[in-house]
Structures are given as structure tokens and as C-alpha cells.
What does this fold into?
Amino acid sequence: MLEGKDENPDAVRLTTVHASKGLEYPHVFLVGVEEGIMPHRGNPDADADVPVDTGRIEEERRLMYVAITRAQRSLHLNWCKKRKRARETVVCEPSRFIPEMLLDDAPPPTEEEAPMSPKDRMARLKELLQKPA
It folds into this structure.
């Protein structure tokens, strides 16, 4: 979104976690919630045997908290099983922060929050297109 332009409430806004501090959005999609990205790997040339800087991990954990608390109605997390880096395919692991969210302990979604089947989603889209503006 460009500064100084009229804000469209139906627009998608892309932002960094840092820039989202203090803001809220109806729906938040966090992309790349995997080890090496969130938390960030730090120095990619560092030896794998070197212990992880716990201070850096704590800062990344705080950033993750900022990110997930920006969502007003829904939060969607995304991570890859594999990704290409410098022409190599690397296997990815979900972020260590995901289990800390205790999502398995969350109450089940209400009927309104439950995911829709593709058939129901298409019917809903058709219904929306039929409504007069």
C-alpha cells in the first residue's frame, strides 16, 4: 500500500512483523513460519555445532508474539516442507514457536469459524455474486 493513497478496507496489506507493532488486522497470514525464518537463522555461515544465541531466540519469540496478536478474527500460519535456496532443495521444519502456541489445547472452532468445504465455498461465492450492490 502506498503512503498518501486512499486506504481500501477490502485491500490486502503486506507488512513486516516489525512494522505491524501497534496495529491490528481482521485476518493475519504469517508466511514462512519455519526454522531458519521464524526464528531467523542469524548468520547462515555459522557452524551448525555453535550453540544458538538464546537472547536472539527470545527476541524472535517476542516478534512472533507481536505477529500473532495482530489478528482480530483469524490467524493463519504457513510453512514449507521443502524450499529452494541457492539452487538447492532444503527440507524445512515448522518453527519451534508453533508448539509453544498450544494450538492443540485451543477450543474447537464454532460453526461460523469452521473451515468450509470447497463445494460450500463455491456456493457462498455464487451467493455473494448474486447480491445486488
About this structure: The chain has a mean pLDDT of 82. The chain is about 25% helix and 15% strand.
